[in-house]
Amino acid sequence: MPRFLSSSALFVLAIICSIVFFEPIHGQGVCRHQGKEYRNGDEWIVSNSFIMNCIVHYNRWETKIIACLSMLGERIPVNGQISDQHGVWKCEQKPNGSTRLVQQKQ
């Protein structure tokens, strides 16, 4: 019976198969922020004022501020605003990603 693959070709094939098998597991990685791990889609509060989100891609991960929190704990979407008894709250995000919560008295 003829041999179709040499032992080195079988070794390379085994490596390729293991990469294909483990890549989906690697792609479901975690975000790391200030010593904690978060899964894709997780949200958490930072500095009592910002809501962050974990986004996992197949080859990388990122965290983003997706909203701010007012003094009363109300969610303010990025570049949005709300009014409450403490004034007008704005969640401002610049193109470089820097975000700030601004309070304007009424």
Can you give a write-up of this model?
The protein has 106 residues and is of the alpha+beta class. It has one domain. Helices cover 20% and strands 45% of the residues. It has one helix at 7-27; strands spanning 30-33, 36-39, 43-46, 50-56, 61-69, 75-77, 81-84, 87-93, 99-104. It has a four-stranded antiparallel β-sheet with strand order 3-4-5-6, with no helix packed on it. Strands 7-8-9 form a three-stranded antiparallel β-sheet, with no helix packed on it. A two-stranded antiparallel sheet has the order 1-2. The longest helix is centred in the first third of the chain and has 21 residues, at 7-27. The radius of gyration is 23 Å and the shape is elongated. It starts with 6 loop residues before the first helix and ends with a strand. Mean pLDDT is 81; it is low at 9-27. Keywords: Signal. Residues 31-98 form the Abnormal cell migration protein 18-like fibronectin type I domain.
The helix content, as a percent range, equals 10-25%
User: Rounded to an integer, what's the Rg over CA atoms?
Assistant: 23 Å
Distance between the termini: 88 Å
Query: Taking all residues together, what is the mean pLDDT?
Result: 81
Strand order of the largest sheet: 3-4-5-6
Order of helices and strands: HEEEEEEEEE
How many strands, which pairing sense, and closed or not: the largest β-sheet?
4 strands, antiparallel
Number of helices: 1
Low-confidence blocks of residues: 9-27
Q: How many domain modules?
A: 1
Features:
about 110 residues, alpha+beta, four-stranded antiparallel beta sheet, three-stranded antiparallel beta sheet, 9 strands, about 20% helix, elongated
